[in-house]
Amino acid sequence: MTKVLISGAGVAGPALAYFLSAHCDVTVVERAPEPRGGGYNVDFRGAAFDVLAELGIEERVRALDTKMRGTTLVDETGATIAELPAEVFSGELEVPKADLTRLLHDITKDRAHYVFGDSITAVDGRHVEFERRDKAEYDLVIGADGVWSNVRRLAFDEQGLTHLGMSGVGFSLANHLGLDHKGLLWQHGGAAIYLYSSGDPRRMTVSMSFATESPELDRSPRDEQEQAVRAAFTSHGWEIPRLLDAMSAAEDYYFGSTCQIRLDRWSRGRVALLGDAGYCAAPTSGMGTSQALIAARSLARHLIATDDHEAAYRAYEAELRPYVTENQEKGRQVAQTLTATPA
User: Fold this and answer.
1) Number of domains forming the structure of the chain
2) 3-state DSSP: the chain helix, strand, coil percent, rounded to 5?
3) Are 52 and 112 within one domain?
């Protein structure tokens, strides 16, 4: 039986593990010590629902619906400009990412062997080395480990990281605005803030984005990141002073840049990339989760159909690339809109 190693236990990795598990011996390695919690809500669109049905979890996922009721667009003072329908930010269905991750782990934990708290350090043909466990041999290695993919770094000469000119911070705080399954979007001078409450009515989630020239802040200490956020927002009023104070106190603080991965090829030898690791469309596309699920099903189908993994990888890429290209263009256009400075 073909031995497959998947790096990453987010969305794409476990979905691929599910589809391959009846045909392959699957191991999933994840740097985190357990299934990841936290994160923003994620949404589903189009053919992703077919994949959820094939995974046998569509109804369970629908039961997690955040039931967002739309977003209010406000000006610099907080006055209402327009009302946006829920589909703009929440797709056809939106759920908490942590709940989806736990659900995917739940349906695959008895189908695949999970190794948490470890990471790949070297890949050479069938030979794979790890930070903690002994080296082992696998027929195929799949990198489903996100934008900063360790597998891509180890196995590909080209990294393909394209910065879309925007970085941001996320955290939660007390819902002093009384948002009830609603969002608020504030934009001014190349900066944007999105506030929403979709779960615990006592808390709201904050995303503060601003224009940057590179993703280097992602690797910087938290105090340097916060300094950059303050530099982008301190001159503004409305709720911003309170949000900046809450940022410094937040225990669920997260910082990340809006990037895409653009590669000429998604495979090399026995290694292939899946989801954000190979072709991230950026959060601004609204397609990351749907793309990950659809891609996992595609890669699994092609691997199951032939013993020639290189042919399977080529077919997978040929099928998915037009869809990915379209999603990446959406992500680029939205990022450009959010960071646009008035003429």
Assistant:
1) 2
2) 35, 30, 35
3) yes
Distance in angstroms (rounded) separating the CA atoms of residues 35 and 28: 11
**Beta bridge pairs of residue 204:** 173
DSSP assignment letter at 219: G
> Is residue 86 in some structural domain?
no
Same domain, 239 and 277: no
CATH of the domain at 14: 3.50.50.60
Query: Does residue 53 sit in the same domain as residue 136?
Result: yes
For 293, phi then psi, to 5°, come to -65, -45
- Which tokens hold the place of 309? 């993994």
pTM equals 0.92
Q: Is 84 among the domain residues?
A: no
- The Cβ of residue 85 has, within 10 Å, a number of other Cβ atoms equal to 11
Burial class (CB in 10 A: 0-12, 13-18, 19+), 211: middle
Decide: 253 and 247 in contact? Cβ < 8 Å: yes
For residue range 230-260, list pLDDT tens digits in order: 999 998 989 999 999 999 999 999 999 999 9
Tokens 């927002």 belong to which residue?
A: 233
Using a 10 angstrom Cβ sphere, with 0-12 exposed, 13-18 middle and 19 or more buried, the burial of residue 142 is: buried
Q: Is 123 within a domain?
A: yes
**Token output for 303:** 């691997």
CB 84 within 8 A of CB 70: yes
Bridge-based pairing of strands 80-84 and 71-74 is: antiparallel
Residues whose CB falls within 8 Å of the CB of residue 21, separated by 6 or more in sequence, listed in order: 108, 111, 112
Give 148's DSSP letter: T
Q: Of how many residues is the chain composed?
A: 343
Q: Report how far residue 298's alpha carbon sits from residue 301's, in angstroms, rounded to the nearest whole number.
A: 5
Q: How far apart are CA 169 and CA 189, in angstroms?
A: 17
Q: What is the pLDDT of residues 156-193, one digit of tens each?
A: 988 999 999 999 999 999 999 999 999 999 988 889 99
| Domain range enclosing 237 | 164-258
